[in-house]
């Protein structure tokens, strides 16, 4: 039988984490090769917030993402996702995940609606049709991400930005409470990144999600995030974008400081009147795709 003191401690801990979507407590991770990817990371992500995780390649961003997804376990410390162990939160479909784009993997003869339905179909026997409620949810998500008019278009014929919209809808179809995005704007031009930020703002507002964006590009996350965490093995900064200084960035990596200063003062980048960018040009993975 547990003591009153232990019951009180458990209740206090549960209350402390109730308002957090992700809790990372003094986490370190070392690979079998002996390389330390993360060292003494502590991070709290409130429910309903939008956090951008910024850092150089090799700085530990992908390792932290794997820890949150439950794909690996920390060498030291503890990670909780929605009050659960990460692996359990992911298996229960409470976490939506958009990995880095791989255009070549989507040459299969599937249309947009079929791709979005793939996640929902995991919960249905192969010989059964998707329930009407799930069909309606797919339609609503396609409308939310602006892809309803292309629902019957083969996924391989879409531009890179259009594919991203379809894949976001796919990540949302299981009704997750946490959405993780790994380098979502790679290959998308500056105007496209601004449009992508507006899309995430709409998703955040309509679905009341917690959103984590991992990127090495400040432009990709500064405009659409409430807080930014700067990561390069250790946590160098975790607060609002307005407080992030060029000195912090210089400490972590040589970044486009001029671009950062432009964003801080409300700039939207170069004017681009072809902002829609959702034409029928198939994605090739080369050069810059237009806006999602």
Summarize this entry quickly.
By secondary structure, the protein is α/β, with parallel strands linked by helices.
Structure, explained:
36% of the residues lie in helices and 21% in strands. By secondary structure, it is an alpha/beta fold. It has a single domain (20-264), classed as Rossmann fold, CATH 3.40.50. A six-stranded mixed beta sheet has the order 5-6-7-3-8-9, sandwiched between helices. Strands 2-1-4 form a three-stranded antiparallel beta sheet. Helix 5 (132-144) runs antiparallel to helix 6. The longest helix has 18 residues, at 190-207. The protein is globular. Residues 1-16, 268-282 and 284-291 have low confidence and may be disordered.
What is the distance, rounded to the nearest whole angstrom, between the alpha carbons of the first and last residues? 56 Å
Assign a percent range to the helix content.
Answer: 25-40%
Q: What is the count of structural domains? A: 1
Give the uncertain stretches in residue-range form: 1-16, 268-282, 284-291
Give the biggest sheet.
Answer: 6 strands, mixed
Q: Output mean pLDDT.
A: 78
The proportion of strand residues reads: 15-25%
* Shape call: globular
Class based on secondary structure composition and strand pairing? alpha/beta
Strand elements, count = 9
CATH class: Alpha Beta
Radius of gyration: 20 Å
CATH topology (level 3) name: Rossmann fold
The name of the CATH superfamily reads P-loop containing nucleotide triphosphate hydrolases
